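Notes, Module 5: Reading structure tokens.

Key idea: the token line is not a picture. It is a compressed description, and you learn to read it the same way you learned to read a sequence, by spotting repeated patterns. We will look at two proteins. The first is printed below with its tokens.
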Amino acid sequence: MIDSYTLVKWAHVWVMGYWIGSDLVVNALTFYTARSTALAGAERRRQWDFLMDVDQHPRNALIVSVPLGFTLAAWSGLVPLGSAGVLVLWILSLAWFWYMWMTHWKRHSPLGSKLAAWDWNSRYLLIAACVLTGGWSLLGRGPFATSWLAWKVILFGGVMACGVAIRHYIRISYQAWPRIWADQKQACDDQIVLDAMRRGTYALWALWALLVIIGYLGAAKPTLVP
């Protein structure tokens, strides 16, 4: 029989692979959409909406990886979370998961704009929480018992920061997309979109690098000097 710890560990590994794999697909679709300049605006709008649907997969992985990772850490005695704490974390993560999908489903409505703004601002709080608790733990006073776990949490904050940067460049592309979709594009609009997508890709590469390091830390569990 496979024990619960092994099942959760394999789920955690699978989610990391799912995350990077879906990001590769999103990146390919992004540049296909940005370069489809000969298509009518309505078709490019359909492409973009499909891209936004596919982009939910990396977001799924980001959220699910949090309770999986902390469950493993709690069961290993590396964070001060008992069974009740782990349960609360899963409930909060499921609420976050639901909120993320509601923001996506309502993105074309006034409510969607408000949900997106709240989601955007919450990322800054989560990034700060990761960096501060991880740094505090490296000083021997925080909740994480080992330096490699503290660094994983800090780097996870970096992953979310990269996600914010990607969304920033997506927002820049919206300077041009409405005119493109309405078949009223100006001469510079296609270039605005392509430049924004390229800059977003640099942030995506940084995100992938951080995920690789995080995966290494979780697998090797090295002894690190703070």
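Here is the second protein, with the sequence above and the tokens below, as before.
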Amino acid sequence: MESLSDEVKDLFEPRSHLHKARIQAAGILKGNDWTAYNEVKSQFERKRSEAKLRFQQEFQSRISDETSRLIDKAGSVRRRFVPRIFGSDKFYKAAIREQAKLNVQAVHRSEMTQIDKQETKQVRVLVDQAVRIQEKGEKLIQDFQSATDRRVGQERRTRSWNRSR
């Protein structure tokens, strides 16, 4: 059985990773990269809204399907023999319905978590590409500065003014 802290971490971790990726993207992306980021963001917002709408529209049918599945599971033959005087009927319609509702909500939460993970993955790809391009540009500037350094002797061994600072 998972602890409460593990459940909370599993619930909020994908969303927090997405939030961090969005903040990083806002600080780094420019121009065409920003346009691509906005397309990714709108694509996943559409996926989220479709999933929420589908969840709302199919909520009752999903609960009835899950209820029948739970009833079928509870009614399956078990190899546990209990004397009749100690046995009791463990069928509580309200409890089964509530469990079905919880199961349906858990499936919806996991679907939303998967959407968050997919968006985080795509945003990270865009951010990594932008960082690589930025580092490449900085390296070119540093290489140019070192190639055009006209100092001689001891002066050349001291560090010169750097544009990246």
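Summary for the second protein:
- The two ends are 52 Å apart (CA to CA).
- Residues 14 and 117 are 6 Å apart (CA to CA).
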